[in-house]
Structure formats: structure tokens, C-alpha cells
User: What shape does this take?
Amino acid sequence: MLCPEDLLAPRMKASNFRLKDKKSRLSLLLTKSGSHENISPEKKTATTNNNISPEAALRWRDSFEDLIRHSDGVESFSQFLRTEFSEENIEFWLACEEYKTIDSEIRLISKAKHMYSVFIEAEAPKEVNIDYASKVAIQKTMASPTNTCFDAAQSKVYSLMKKDCYPRFLTSDIYLHLTKRKGPGTTMYRRRSRSCVFNEPRGEATSDSSDWL
Assistant: This one.
């Protein structure tokens, strides 16, 4: 006969799984953004999601907010940033979004120190481009970090991506492929069959002015 503990165990496992799944969504996006270490941009961009409809991708032109509001947009933008070796920006932004959802003081301290060592301190493996004063301000909070200690740095990185990276993304091969459009300067011309007229008696060849459309 099953004891009460045996009956409760499956329920507790299911509840813990749902909680873990909910809190790991942002972490999953961070994992998807990947790293450029030892991987060429060409290899990384080959993983572009082919299931994204052109109509959905075109909506990302409306604003940067529309782009990063969708997981496919974040993944495509991350792939573009990898080609510029600047994916640390979106990875830091995603890490900040996840960090603000942490409700455990122990996990908050651990995550804050990890983020500081990866993104903030000098010579960090994925150091983001923020000013020295912001770095010092974050360092002072590491003894007792709060959910908002990275907010100022996150805002600076967000602004950088929006003003600098986002416009280039919209003209990149990655985005144009998703929207089924061609880049600037790629207008296709259809060539007619070439006709030449030889002037007598010299035999000089002249081209028909309507060779190209």
C-alpha cells in the first residue's frame, strides 16, 4: 500500500518542473544567443530560423522593441551580432532581464557576481561597452546586490543596440533573407540577346543601345 509521501511525490515533482520551466525561458534565450569563440560568423548564421514568415520579420522594422519582444527576433538579432562579434550586448541584456526575476537572495548574489565577472569587470570575457563610472557603481553593489543594480548598464547597452546595431541589422543579409528581399544595389537586370551591326566597309561593330533593360 502506498503511503501519503508516495502519493505527494509525483505532484511535487510536476510543480517544481513547471516553476523551473517558467523561470528558465529567458535563460534559454541567453543560451541560444551563443558565443563567437572558435566559431566563424559564416557557420553561425547558417542556423537562421527558416520557419519565420516574411510577414512576421517585416514587422520587426516597426521598432527595436518589436524585434526583441519576440524570441525569433532575439535569435535572429543575436545571429547578426555574432557576425559583428558583438553578441555580448544582447547576452548581457537578456541576462539582466532574467536577473530581475530572481526572488532568492542567495541566487541573486551568486548571479550578480557571475554577471559582473562575465560582462562588467575589466578584461571580462564578454565585457560590454559601458563607461567607467557605471562599472564602478556596479562594483560597489556586489557586496549586497539588488534586483536593480544592473539597470543603468542595461539601459546603456539597450540604447547602443537600438541606435547602432539595429539599423545595420535591418540592412543585413540575415534580415533581408528572412523578409525575402534583396539588399541595396542588387537590382537584377535581364539581358537581351546581343545584336551587332557591322559598318561597311570597315567592319566596325556597334552595340544595340537596347541590350540591357
Notes: The beta strands are 196-199, 204-207. The chain is about 55% helix and 5% strand. The longest strand covers residues 196-199.
